Amino acid sequence: MNPRALVAALCLAALTACPKPTPPVLGFPGPLAIHRWDTTFSNGLPITIFYPDTPAKQPRPVVIFSAGWNQTRGSYFGYGEQLAQWGYIGIIRAYPNPSLLGIGIDTSEQQTQQVTDLIDWCAAEGERAESPLFGTVDIARVGTIGHSFGAFVALSAAVNDPRIRAVVDLDSIVADARSSNAALLRAQLAATFTPILWIGTDKGAFCSGPRGPFALPLFDLANSPSEEVIVHGAAHIDFLEQSVGLNNLGQIICGGGTIDQNEARAIAARYMISWFNVYLQGQDDFRTYLDGESAMQDVAAGKVSIRVKPENGTP
User: Fold this and answer.
1) Closest of 255, 219, 209 to residue 235, by C-alpha
2) If exposure means fewest CB atoms within 10 Å of the residue's CB, which of 129, 148, 230, 235 is most exposed?
3) Could you tell me where the beta strands, DSSP code E, fall in 84-181?
């Protein structure tokens, strides 16, 4: 055999024999035990914090979850727990009831400012020796996430605060080109290059915003990097963890989806954790759950549809 051909054959055999790198196992509960801390900040506003329970203190990224309109913090505790299990300081916040007609630009600005205030508070707690968060807050790695109206708040905060490095949007209710927030949202999307993950539904009806000509195409308006994940069979209300607050009323108004709520939340949590792992912790091996082999398995199974704008801006 030709010596070069022999070398090539041996190299090919060696490569074939080498096992392919296996993706990280992403499941819930995650690998870390956690603590819960119920406290207040800024004029007594209540927050619930979930954080890892580890012997050694180390700086950890912070993710702030803004609740949906008129929802309590307890509607979303599962997301905070999952974030903490994967190494984050997960903070669940609600806000004073904005009333039935109080969803407008003014309210959005107030909520955006509260997120910024909460980041400042976290930074101070990380330096306060008596705080459970002492020595564990990495204020250079902050993410925001929200559901419905809270998703709009999460995005607005990222536009206004450069410390926010990644955003996850759970089915924005403001995705309506006729809404009072539409012009503001368009301007914000044009102005930010913060990585944004949109997780939406195809059974949302009224509560997810309109379909057709009045829909505000959030993913299309966003800069890269961004990704859109549509959870097939899920409804807007399915991202709530439990029937607290106005969830029961929401079920009546919004209607449920055609898949189990636990499945809808599990899918959302898997993409949420992967997005923050990649963009807040630099763990690129979790991209398999965003647009790699694991994500394509979800697509092939009919669970989701996915659109991606990667870092280079090419769809």
Assistant:
1) 255
2) 129
3) 89-93, 137-147, 164-170
